[in-house]
Write a structure and sequence with these properties.
The chain is α/β, with parallel strands linked by helices and 280 residues long. The chain has two domains: 78 residues, 2-Layer Sandwich (Alpha-Beta Plaits), CATH 3.30.70.260; 195 residues, Formyl transferase, N-terminal domain (Rossmann fold). 33% of the residues lie in helices and 31% in strands. It has eight helices and 13 strands. The strands form three sheets. The protein has a seven-stranded mixed β-sheet with strand order 7-6-5-8-9-10-11.
Length: 280
């Protein structure tokens, strides 16, 4: 039996679940998991269904398309065997990169990582250890357009499904964000906007914070304001040094980014305007 994942979003109205499940039944599908949500505020209906069938994903898609498209839906249908291909971008901080590579190697993350891109060479040895191609693309204010053009070429060459900024310390241009809408995931500390700029954990320590955290979100042309995918926090207190906060911050950043990548890899995220529906 072939196992596939269907995601769908459309204006909410009666009969969507009945029609979709009926179409899957007609296509020989047996539903294994089903999650749905109707947003009364935005009027969006979102659905994720995992099913098995003797037919291929392409055949099922062709059979259910006339039914799904009656609802003016945005939808995807993917054979689980075809893993998403992720490009990871990193600068010098390696904790998120190493965590993703390890989780991929153990099977915890069902993705392929054919390529790592960096504006520095510091993390090349991690790529070599895991047998992943490493592309060094240095960037300056004068070469940013050329560097991003090469990045887009690599996305096409490697058939990349989505990009992960694993502490990539460069601001992407609006043009690049527009070229990969809802396909770039970023991680940042949750002190924004109160602690912008360098050494945020030291700024937080100086202000006596009681919580630190991290946020994973889609990248848009509005810096750090894209739809949020996952967040988490850790409690801290006055006895902890800035260095201890940095350590704890690295840990929460790893966890949050890994969850966001897993949700993306398993087709669990549906966009709802400026926010997301995540079928965790």
């Amino acid at each position: 039996m072939n196992r596939s994942i269907l995601t769908l979003s459309c204006p909410d109205r009666p009969g969507i679940v009945h029609a979709v499940s009926g179409a899957l039944l007609e296509a020989g599908g047996n539903i294994l998991e089903n999650a749905q949500f109707g947003d009364t505020g935005t009027g969006l209906f979102a659905l994720r269904t995992r099913f098995e069938s003797e037919r291929s994903a392409d055949d099922v898609a062709a059979m259910i398309a006339p039914v799904v498209e009656r609802f003016d839906a945005r939808w995807t249908l993917r054979d689980e065997v075809r893993r998403h291909r992720a490009l990871i971008m990193v600068s010098r901080y390696d904790h998120c990169l190493v965590d993703l590579l390890y989780r991929r190697s153990t099977g915890e993350l069902a993705i392929d990582i054919p390529l790592i891109v960096s504006n520095h060479t510091d993390c090349a040895h991690h790529a070599a250890r895991y047998g992943v191609r490493y592309e060094h693309l240095p960037v300056t204010s004068g070469t940013k357009a050329q560097q991003e053009a090469r990045l887009l070429e690599l996305v096409v060459e490697e058939r990349i499904d989505f990009v992960v900024l694993a502490r990539y310390m460069q601001v992407l241009s609006p043009e690049l964000c527009a070229a990969l809408p809802s396909r770039i995931i970023n991680i940042h500390h949750s002190f924004l906007p109160g602690f912008k700029g360098a050494r945020p954990y030291h700024q937080a320590h100086a202000r006596g914070v009681k919580l630190i955290g991290a946020t994973a979100h889609y990248v848009t042309s509005d810096l750090d304001e894209g739809p949020i995918i996952e967040q988490d926090v850790e409690r801290v207190d006055h006895s902890m040094s800035p260095e201890r906060l940095v350590e704890m911050g690295r840990d929460v950043e790893r966890r949050v980014l890994a969850k966001a990548v897993r949700y993306q890899a398993e087709d669990r995220i549906v966009l709802d305007g400026h926010k997301t529906v995540v079928f965790a």
